Amino acid sequence: MAERDGGGSTPHGNGGPQTAEPWGERHELALLRSAVRAIGEALVVTGADLDSPGPIIEYVNPGFERMTGYAAQEVIGRSPRFLQGPLTDRAVLDHLHSALRAGHSFQAEAVNYRKDGTTYDVEWLITPVLKDGQVVHWVAAQRDVTERKRTEERQKRLVDELNHRVNNALAAVQAVATQTFRDSQRNVGEVRDVFRDRLLALSRVHVLLAKEHWEGAPLQSLAERQLMPHRGNAGRIDLAGPEVRLAPSVAVAFGMALHELLTNALRHGALSRPEGHVRFEWSVVPDSGNKRLQLHWAEKYGPPVSPPPHRGLGSRLIERGFTHGLRANVRMLFEPSGLRCEVDAPLATVVPKVP
Question: pLDDT, tens digit, for every residue of 179-191?
Fold first, then answer.
């Protein structure tokens, strides 16, 4: 058995084993200092006096130096209050002072300032050191929780955003149901089918937005998802236009309007005949230093078209979808050659807002 560092025992004595003597205070103090220097947490030891300028720092460990950017010699003899600033919650400090004056431990979080002026969120536990029933020192164990706070804030934003999207989705479903079941011109079976198709159209938009992390949706992809499942024979629907990214709410509105245009073309327009054809194209054009998005839907080789005696629900849904909060101009032209729908909107109202 090897001799312990600094121990008073020997491996042999009088022919029998000896009991190791406990380490002395010097060894315990050396071990404690090594442990305090090695731990990742910041440790601060101050005097007991709480009156202004506050308890004076007597010791900080390397963890404190790493966390704050201050060297030990820069803070010894100062009050920890110099780490506080405009963003430090004064209410937390008031609770802290009350607890310490009562001689109690206190745990809380606050915003502190590093040497370079940047802020960090710190969690600390301050504990009194007692001698003969009197506080002689305060020991504060501190931890930088900035990243944890940021993660919590990101999670909260994600939850809030998810709640917002769910509410929007429910509102959209409610609107689709209201608009569909208000149509008294159809029987129950037709209304059921229309409602189902509209919900499927809405779900396709939401799947696309989810794929894009709800940051927007490419107009090309949106048009393909809403129009191509019904393409049938190759070449019956043509899509053309530059890359344009739509804001999430705009994508939902545009997607539902395209679904209504397609439904009308399948039932009454160009796609109700084998030779019918649809072209959907879009462009971005300059306008007095700004830009505008122009959409053009054109049907041909379908049955003769004439203006309806009154605007139906489908027409209202198309116009409402393309004008939803966009300050857009929409024209529905029922020409003998086929339906044309033209949309003109400021590009700034269509694309995602820059944070």
Answer: 677 665 667 777 7
Instruction: Enumerate helices (H) and strands (E) in the chain, giving the number of each.
Output: 9, 12
DSSP state letters, 191-256: HHHHHHHHHHHHHHHHHHHHHTTTS-EEHHHHHHHHHGGG--STTSEEEE----EE-HHHHHHHHH
DSSP one-letter code for 349: G
Backbone angles phi, psi at 106, to 5 degrees: -145, 135
- Tell which CATH classification among 3.30.450.20, 2.60.40.3550, 3.10.450.50, 3.30.565.10 matches the domain 25-144: 3.30.450.20
pLDDT tens-digit series, residues 2-47:
333 444 444 444 444 444 445 566 656 565 666 666 666 899 999 9
Domain spans in the chain, listed from the N-terminal domain onward: 25-144, 149-349
Question: Residue 63's CB: how many other CB atoms inside 10 A?
Answer: 21
**Alpha-carbon Rg for the chain in angstroms:** 36
Whole-structure pTM value: 0.59
- Please give the CATH number for the structural domain made up of 149-349: 3.30.565.10
277-287/329-335 β-pairing: unpaired
